[in-house]
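Hey, I'm writing a tutorial for new members on how sequence and structure tokens pair up, and I'd like a real worked example in the thread rather than a made-up one. If someone can provide the structure for the chain below, I'll link this post from the tutorial.
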Amino acid sequence: MPTQVNPATGEEGKTFPALTDEQIEAKLAKASETFRSWRTTDLSTRTDLLIRIADQFAAQKESLANIITAEMGKPITQARAEIDKCEKAFRFYAKNGPPMLAPVEQKLVSGTSVSHWLPQGPVLAVMPWNYPLWQVVRFMAPTIMAGNVGVLKHASSTPGCAAALEQIVLDAGGPEGVFQNLHISASKVAGIIADDRIVAVTITGSEGAGIKVAEAAGHNLKKVVLELGGSDPFIVMPSADVRKAAETAVTARLQNAGQSCICGKRMIVHEDVYDEFMEIFVEGVKTIKIGDPTDDGTQMGPLSSVGARDEIAAQLDQAVQSGANKLYGGDIPDQPGAWMTPAILTDIPDDAPVAREEFFGPVAMVFKIKDIDEAVAVANNIPFGLGSSAWTNDADEQARFIRDIEAGMTAINQMLASDPYAPFGGVKRSGHGRELGSHGLHEFMNLKNVMLPE
């Protein structure tokens, strides 16, 4: 049974009963039943629902933000920003979804081809705790716009967020079954993927979880979108605005206590500007305001759980044992909750395993490089390929990073962030498929080609 635990205090909250097998069956039956009618709704019906859901996010902003903060420790100002982003995504698909679903006509040598985007059925989403509403909305909004229906298996640590999402759709007047939450354990996921009524699955999570979901989906010949881990490079070259880059790097690494797949986790800095960058970056890390996540002035709260904090602490210790220099931080205060000060690692040996690992917490790794070739080599010397950020005002260097960094996304002279308008996803062991934009809308649709005579 999922139970709320406040990571700032360790106090337990509400417990949500796990669904029985009979209740899971009822939910899947309702999803299948609702899809049969929802798939034939006109686009105006779908966009109207998306707008009403967006209105609910706006109306319930404070209460939703409080749930996020209580369940996973996100500072309240960042939680409010997450709600704003959710609202923006629903309004984006309400406005831009219909033209994205327009048939595409192509003249042939003889006759005409018309391609139609058609819904396929119930889609299962397995979602994480770090952006407990936004991660779901990235799947939820396009699913509804497409004429599909969704079922959600959320992280066990954010059951209140999961329940709130289903209720928002009902509050907006959505039909029962168009979006349902399943309070279930991870052991139930494979069985649901195998169910003939589920047509596809999307997961945002760890590499291990992604492998299990992909295995289950592949065994049942079902499409899967994987948005997994990342250890994103944050590259700073001599022509960059070094102060702006260093100040942005603090936010990129420590936003959400560093618990983001597209955080700038590895700072790769040219030797000519290394000292200048480090002076600003280290001071920014040292002075970030850590404290009560319900306080508007707090910039960094606790990690999501004591277990997650302890894993990061152990990984940090292993990095030091392998030869890395802990320049600052990584302290655990003697108090209840999942607290930890941010840490900075330098002088990381090339052969140290940690150089190719992901720190899913407030630990920055800093690498000094001598030229662009080494910058690209260090950036790509990881099994992941999600995002990246490159700071340079040299047009040739920008083109080189865009071409050669092995990642699904590259931000130039800015912090990488997800946006409803732009496709989101990675390569290598960061997964495959895309969320958001038109690509996210089309992922779980049938592109049916119709051949017409002259």
